[in-house]
Structures are given as C-alpha cells and as structure tokens.
Amino acid sequence: MTTHPIEQPTVVVADDSPVMRRIVGSVLEKAGYHVVLAEDGVDAVQACMRTLPDAVVLDVQMPRLSGYVAARVLKDDWRTAEVPVLFLTSLSAASDRYWAAQAGATRFLTKDFEAPELESAVAAALEAAVLARGGRSAVKADPVELTDDDVLARVADLLDRKLFEASVTADVAAIATEVWGFEETVAAVLETLGRVVDCDLVGVLLLEESTTYIGVQAPASLAHHDAFVASVCDAAAQAVGPDFDRAGVASRVADPSHQLGTAGGFEVDADEPMATFLSMPLRAGGRTLGLLAMSSATPHAFGESALATLRLVAGPAAVVIAHARLAGTPVS
C-alpha cells in the first residue's frame, strides 16, 4: 500500500441512464476530476474496487444492484469503507434520505441539481474525508478485480450477516415483552448470548446489585468459574475505577444441566483453567450498568465474530435489563 496526495481526484459515477452519466461526468470533468463511469450497481462496485476512487456518486434505482446496496457493499470493505458516497437520484422522500444515511451516504442530491451544487457537494465530501483522516494523505490499497459473481457473493454475505444481527437484536429486545421478573430477564439475556457465541461461561456483573449473574453453557471446572468471576471483577474495576468494591460482589449461578464441576455424572478436571476471556461494558441512558462477559477453556476461543456479537448484544441487553430493574425490585 502507498500513500499519496490527491492531485486529480477520481470519482466513480454510476447511473443506468446514459444521458445522466454524460451530464454528471461532464460536470465533474470540467471541475477537474477524473471520472470513471459505471452503468449499474454491480458495475459501480467493480469500478470502485478497480480504481479505488476518492468519491463515488450513485443513482439509487439501478439494475442488478441498487445504489443503496452498492453503497453498503463498499462500506463493508476496508479498501473503500472511507470513500465518500453521494447519492444523486430522482427520489426525494424522507424515507429515501434516511435509508441513504443508513447506507453510509455523505450527501443526498436530487436530479434537478445545478452544476455548482454537484461540484460543491463533491468538493465538500472530499474535504470532509481529508479532515476525518486528520489531514493525512489517503492510503491506497492494491486494486481488486471482481467478477459479477464476486460482487453478488459479497451482497449475499452482507445480507446474511445483517439478517443475523437483526435477528439477535430482535431476540434480545423481545425479552422485555416475553419475560417477567428482573433475574428472569437477566437469565434470558445470558441464555440468548450463550446461543449465539460458543462459550463455557457467560455472565453479567450489575454494579447497582453488586452481583455477577453467571450462566453455565458447557462443562466447566470450579477453578474456571473462580477465575471467570475474578476476571469479571478486574474488568469492572478498570471500567468503574477505584470506587469499585470487588470484595462486596456476590455471585449467582444458573446451571440447570449441572455442568459446573460435574457433567454427565463425571467430575470436570479441577485443574482445567479459563483460557480465554472477553468482556464488554453494559451502558444504557449514558450510565454504565455493569458489563457482559464470557469465557472458555479453549485458547483463542473468541475471534472478531464473537466480539462483534457482544457489541451487538450489549446495547439492547442494557436497555432490557434497565427496564426490568425499573419494573420491579430485584431479588437480593
């Protein structure tokens, strides 16, 4: 990879209308940009990966791949994640502007634009990108040639991950309407997290209750449990500071299958250690409620996927637990 200053910025322009491509391309070329034209969303993704532009202008309604989906694919790849995306479309409803922002758009322009408006929008997007980098030159990766199938495979992968994220978030949010009782709510949150990430122990330390609630997901030794509780307290102390009283933290364990210490009638190796630990602050309403944590006896058990899932669950879990706390007094 190399870094270099922008001398003649490259802008990819994607529109299925040959007339609009010529008009937009001509405006930007006269403004001093090197323009690469694309005929639809798939072509736009391919052009961006091939040229690694400084900005991209997308129509929304295009064959094969809409501008919204193309933008999401570009934002999902580290090579093009920071490239400013501008939508230039005949759509103008508030819902269209909202969805454009959700897709990562920097600006949203309608096709009744004047040339100076488009020039100004692209220039502002490029300037904002430079400021976001702290004034540093852009880092350019090696170009990538993608086939049509490559692009569609990326779309399918992105769709699958987004559906997974939406499903997990919905499952956690649904706890608020399906489960009654504070500790039952906490247990349901832990059960949901244990279903989407492979772990031995999963827990939540709640500061106001000064209690660590632990769900046992797989056979685990008592030594593993003790190390997990100690690590949870260490992480909480780092998050809260010197006011955290780890000596006063109680522990409550949910182990319906009797997997802690013994499993299936056999004693779990008492020396089996906790090899991997992962935690995430639990915040709601601007306050730190505690933290979520999980552990495993397997070394390097949690990769980027587990961290991403924990981040995904932490927000809605905090809200659900906070609401359950308001709804009733927790059992101590």
Compact description:
With 332 residues, the protein is α/β, with parallel strands linked by helices.
**Helical coverage, percent range:** 40-55%
Low-confidence stretches: 1-6
Total count of domains: 2
State the shape: elongated
What are the secondary-structure elements, in order, as H or E?
Answer: EEHEHEHEHEHEHHEEHEEEEEH
* Total DSSP helices: 9
Report the biggest beta sheet as strand number plus sense, adding barrel if it closes. Answer: 5 strands, parallel
Counting DSSP E segments of at least 2 residues, the number of strands comes to 14
Strand arrangement across the biggest beta sheet: 3-2-4-5-6
Name of the CATH first level of the largest domain? Alpha Beta
CATH fold-level name of the largest domain: Beta-Lactamase
Roughly how many Å apart are the termini? Answer: 57 Å
- Please give the radius of gyration in angstroms: 25 Å
CATH architecture classification of the largest domain: 2-Layer Sandwich
Report mean pLDDT, rounded to a whole number.
89
Structural class of the secondary structure composition? alpha/beta
Strand content: 15-25%
Explained architecture:
The chain is of the alpha/beta class and 332 residues long. The chain folds into 2 domains: 2-146, 3-Layer(aba) Sandwich (Rossmann fold); 167-327, Beta-Lactamase (2-Layer Sandwich). The protein is 45% helix and 21% strand. The chain contains 9 helices and 14 strands. Strands 3-2-4-5-6 form a 5-stranded parallel sheet, with helices on both faces. A 5-stranded mixed sheet has the order 10-9-8-14-13, sandwiched between helices. Helix 2 (41-51) packs parallel to helix 3 and helix 6 runs antiparallel to helix 7. The termini are far apart.
